[in-house]
Each structure stands twice: as structure tokens, then as C-alpha cells.
Request: fold
Amino acid sequence: MAHILLSLSLFLTLLLGACADLPPTGRLASDPTIQDIFDSGQIPAEHTYYTMGSRVHPEAIIGLRQPYRLRSEIWTPIDLNEQQFRDWLFWFKIGETPTCTHSGGLLITPDGQSAGVWYSKKTLGTIWEPEQSVITVSPFSSPEGSPCRHQENVDNR
Reply:
């Protein structure tokens, strides 16, 4: 019995030690005002925009405000205008289901600051700030068991 407790104690110590070395992370925060702006076909001004996925039908859009810059090989910079966004919005709405719609919100840095905006059906993402005003944004995903995750699985068959 002592051997099991010692092994469990060692495992927990290693696990907690490994977690302590992880850098702090930021997150996606839903914001109905930002979602309403995007849903109306407008794009917030004064942002530098990036897409994830196809340039024809992106899976996600982010916009960074000054002074933030993006460090990424996943996100593609784009000179986004409202006409292009409205074209995407048309196709986004066709691909939605009543239980899996696009959301919008703020990109929150590890220290709680708003670095910009996002719009996607996928609502999970992680943000790191490896240096001052430089952020890295993970690929977005849908929560396990959510209607959007189910739809992704159906679409990928």
C-alpha cells in the first residue's frame, strides 16, 4: 500500500511541476456586441485581419488592434473589406444550423487585455504573448460534445 501511495505522490508532484512551467494563456471571450457587428456584415475598423482555413470559406477570422502583432504560421493575413466579408457571411449563414451558428468576441491576452476581435463557429482558442504586444493564437476548435463539433465530424466524413 505504501508503494502505491509513494508512486501516486511522485506522479502528482511531477504533474504539478510540469504544469507550473507552462506559460500563462489568454482566451476567446464571447461578446454579443462584436457578434452583432459581424452578423450585420460590418467589420470593426482599425484592425489587421487574419483568416484560418480556406481563403474562399475561412473557418475563423481574427482582427488585431494596434499595438498587437501576430506571430503565426497558421493564420493568413488578409486585406479584408466589407464586401468580401459580406460574401463570406452569405456562405457562413447557409452552412449554419439552428444549434451551430457563428459567434464573435474578443481576443483576451494572458494579462487580461483585449488584443482584438474574432468571428467563427469554433469558440475555443488559446492565446500566448511570447513578448510584449506579440501574440500567438492557436487554431480554433469546437467544444467536445457540442452541436458544432458534431457537425464538423459529419462534414469530415
